[in-house]
Automatic annotation (TrEMBL):
Residues 121-569 form the Glycosyl hydrolase family 13 catalytic domain. It comes from Microbacterium terricola. The keyword rRNA-binding does not apply. This is Glycogen operon protein GlgX homolog. Keywords: Glycosidase, Hydrolase. Gene3D superfamilies: Glycosidases (3.20.20.80), Golgi alpha-mannosidase II (2.60.40.1180), Immunoglobulins (2.60.40.10). The keyword Cytoplasm does not apply. PANTHER family: GLYCOGEN DEBRANCHING ENZYME. The lineage of its organism: Bacteria, Bacillati, Actinomycetota, Actinomycetes, Micrococcales. InterPro entries: GH, GH13_cat_dom, GlgX_Isoamylase_N_E_set, Glyco_hydro_13_N, Glyco_hydro_b, Glycogen_debranch_GlgX, Ig-like_fold, Ig_E-set.
Amino acid sequence: MLSQEPERPASATFLSADLDGLGVTRDGDDGTLRVWSGEATSVELVLFDHRDLDWATHTLALEPVGGGVWSVTTPLLRPGARYAIRVDGPHRAGATFNPETLLLEPYSKGLVSGGHGDWRSVVVDGSFDWGDSRKPGVPLDRTVLYEGHVKGLSKRHPRVPPALHGTYAGLAHPAMIEHFLDLGITSVELLPVHAFVSEPRLLQYELANYWGYNTLNFFTPHAAYATEASRREGPDGVQREFKGMVKLLHEAGLEVILDVVYNHTSEAEIGMPRSSLRGIDNRAYYRQHDDGAYIDVTGCGNAVDTSTDAAARLVLDSLRYWANDLQIDGFRFDLAVTLGRDADHAFTSQHPLLRAITDDPALAGVKKIAEPWDVGMGGWQTGNFGDGWQEWNDRYRDRVRNFWLSDIDYARRASTAPVGVGGFATRLAGSSNTFSAERGPLASINFLTAHDGFTLRDLVSYDVKHNMGNGEQNRDGADTNRSFNHGAEGATDDPRILATRRKAMRNLLGTLLLSAGVPMLTAGDEFGRTQRGNNNAYCHDSPLTWLSWDHAPWQEELHAHVRRLLRLRRENPALRPSRFAHEHQTVPSASVIDWYDEHGQTMSGERWSNPAHRTLQYDAESTPETEAANRILLVVHGTERPIDVTLPVVDGIARYVSLWSSADEVPDEQERVYEPGAIVSLVGTSMHLFRAE
């Protein structure tokens, strides 16, 4: 649960100079390796032949230099050197030392595989010409996240050369950049690119960990995403291609956000192979009971223990490296609650590591996005991260899905929806009941879909998951999806059902892109991509998960709606306030909100909760600070019965200009003008956006 201790300055002993310079550093012709292990009795450096990774050419002993750090300096640690470490230590509960096991050095900037799970660290040169490339520094209020997979984004794109399909270079190809810019997103958020491996269970089923949430090393780009040409050059070639991708995206004005997995590693549960941290100092790096049994709050077999100096510093140093040496613009922290658990395994927003991530000058200006939950006790912490953090807002996701999908399903069965419009309105206006006034609406990362779960199209096409292809007898994946198939499970040729599904997608996208907060769009949802009802496709590296760029006319029409909505978001600052308004004072960069019912009258208290009245008019007026004044009116109608809506008569508004309607199959280019008090007819379950002038 959230710690109730009074706020106090974060202890940051892991920032001690004793832990500076871990890994390999170069000085002239020499290389120095520094490794931390609090319990080790000996540490060895083993160097290998460049071509035969089983041929050990040299073995050197590291010497203790204080603070648990072991060090050796040698000219053999030159760029391209293949190496591993061996660590010995005491035999007691929780210690898993073995002086014969070859281990990856945790700060390795490059890796090579000898096959059969056998890996070696590599010293990389790291040089790169960034030229005039700079981080775009997109302000939060203008940020639009686009979550995608490095391979899946370009694997099937017809204008990306085959040699670049599914690669870092392919992601930065002009055809991909053109799509990103034309769509209107600002920041590409990539599923994990830290070097990762597939779990043995998946390999037995001839499947793979496609998403990448099984980290092998926190400093090395995943080599399989590089082109064959770069892979032939070795780890330096892989790193150069990754940096080249970042450089080209930055030159186009696009940010690169990484989904990072610091909460667990691929070493999994006790009994699985030691590849790195487990063999270096198991008790310091993983959460465990006194008897050595792991405390697994991630559901993946182990949990990194960030209450220890070594683990916390490893995470912070990795972030600094990616943010500065590789010029990454931000991070989305998978299961971030795990990182904020203290020595008693309870979450606190004042955890020294969480504070250090937001306060570290080396990470200034870097976006920090928390997935605010894990699977341990007290693991759901949405709204409880501190200043400097944005959070995935699952309350937003669930309420919006309910309003447009499961509530409508319920109403078809029971003649009325289960709830009114009040909860939906709160989410639309920035989730002030979840995020404090100090943090404001931009603390909320609004999303309706993500890599994990149904795609947008599947959300409106399936009532239940269809995950048999994952090899777990449909037991995996979420059972509660708040989805609605609209009358047929999956594929159908019923034109009425298909039309209703298309409108439902437009309602969902309209809500997402017109809400206060930072929107996150899942790659492919702009085209209505399907995974055929699989809501946990993590193990499918196939056309099921790769984006298709061959689209039916209705998909191009949906794409046009997303482009229009994102343009309207840019042009209307009232839709993207930075702060919550205050009833008794003017707050710069806020939006002052008034709510009206379908008759154009101020919403009564009873109307907010009445399930028979799910129509509201959302009037938001910006309080200018850096942009021109702006005012919008968004009409939301949440039942399947058509309705006539009277536009409100409000002082200072002379007319309403129609900007977008979810009822249209194709966005209407005409900006029709309506007078205050005019009647606007809405079809069932629809939205209509106006600019108020």
